[in-house]
User: What shape does this take?
Amino acid sequence: MKLNSLISNDFAVDGLDNAIIIIGYKSNEIEYLNQEFITVFDYSSKDEIMKKKIGELEFNELKKLHAFLKEKNKESVGPVKVNYQRENAETLFLKIKAWQIELNNKDYIIYSIKKSNNSYQECYLENNDKSLNQDCEFNEVIQDLNDSSDIIGNRKKLDNFLLKLLRSALMFIECDKGIVFLKDFFNDQGYMKEEIGVKLDEEVYRRLLIIFDSVLFGTRMIKKKIMDVLEDSINFEDRDISFELINDYDGTPLGLILFLQKEDREYNLTKSLLKVLGVTYLNFEVQRVKNLQREQKNQLINQEVNIAAHIQTSFIPKKTPRYNNLEVALYSQPSKLVGGDYLGFHEEEDKFDLLISDVMGKGIPAAIVVATIHSAFNILSDFDKNSAQILSSLNSNLYHDLKNQSAFVSMFHAIFDFKEEKLRYSNAAHNPPLLWSPKRQEFSLLSKKGILCGVESEYEYSLHEVKLEKGDIIIFYTDGLTDLRNVKGDRFKLERVKELIKNNSLSSAEDLKDRLIQEISLFIKEQPQPDDISFVITKFLKE
Assistant: This one.
């Protein structure tokens, strides 16, 4: 049976009120979605997102649930209650169910998403025991709490909200003893608590925290261990104890809400209220606060990344070096806002130093290493050192910075000596530059190399040299250039670069750079750039 047949025959997807999306288990690609999904999540058509990866969707909670389901290898999950903000700022309250199916030896995950316009009130009605007839009164309590929760943004406000929630709940069931306990996710340590009519020792809360911090216990075991702690700590007298867990979106317990009620009170009423407050309402509010925290953290990270990108951009030489007998053209494009490639120049009247390096990794960690390289290279360039000595000094410097990290750096340093018409160089496991000789009509690689920088504290790199002749073209590059792939998965091989240089060997270095950038663009088209790309093209003119 085909997937479309399964959907139309067994699920009648387009006839359901629920939004449906089906993801390939291994591929993570969207295999099917119905019209309701398009409508709810503001897409223009099915074609807009079909065959995309689930990671490309803007619905973060669905991506997290997908990752959780695969990590835990669960056959089904849900219903999970989340909220989603549409482009028009409307907040939707959603419930997601997910389950795995196998069809024609291929696994899929089906997500059924139900929209609710009444948020907490609807959840309350779903969880409500038939004997509970105080709907209107309870809705007023919930609405009052809704008004209070809109402004939660820090621990103090959450403490105040928890106290108000506990007071409202106890008043509603005419009970005088209750506790709310919650892990402190503002500081990632300790806990928050509110008590009314009962006082527990701090040692009790520390024992509860240990239970919630454990990853070894399932929900049933956690509830049993909590009950053991409470029975050791509370004098029940003529009271029943009732509590519900407060969970994270993935089911991880974060705390509890507890009532101590006299035995002659309506027990079903208490249990129903606990389910609504603990299972539905508090879970939702905790998620809303944590989502706000994530948004604020992401905004701060984005600000820091933008600052780092601005700093790193300042490392790239602003002006292309100008010599009568040497043309230089450069290009550098990180795959993210910041990257691990570095280009450095040092200019003298009769010499030109060039350093190109590639840090293993991307993003902020790689950018920090780049900053170290930039500073060290600027200092070393003021000393009369050859390429091998410069790499040895950079290696020693980087080893002490990287010895506790799994990061290494490839480097290539070269010095153009215009008086002797030679290129002297040293290589620390970097891609060997490509040299085109128009006189001999052949390519050669500057392939002699040493180890990566940062592997050994003391390492002596070897020095090599080549004689430069008129028209010689050299391209220095990082592996991001040859790691490029097109839509078919083919690599951007060095043969393409050779062909371009050979066919345009009379062009200037700047023109060759522009042609290579155009060739890259035509090759990858809409494909993402997997790695940072940097290259320098030089052309020796000879006076």
Observations:
- Confidence is low (pLDDT under 50) at residues 5-15, 119-136.
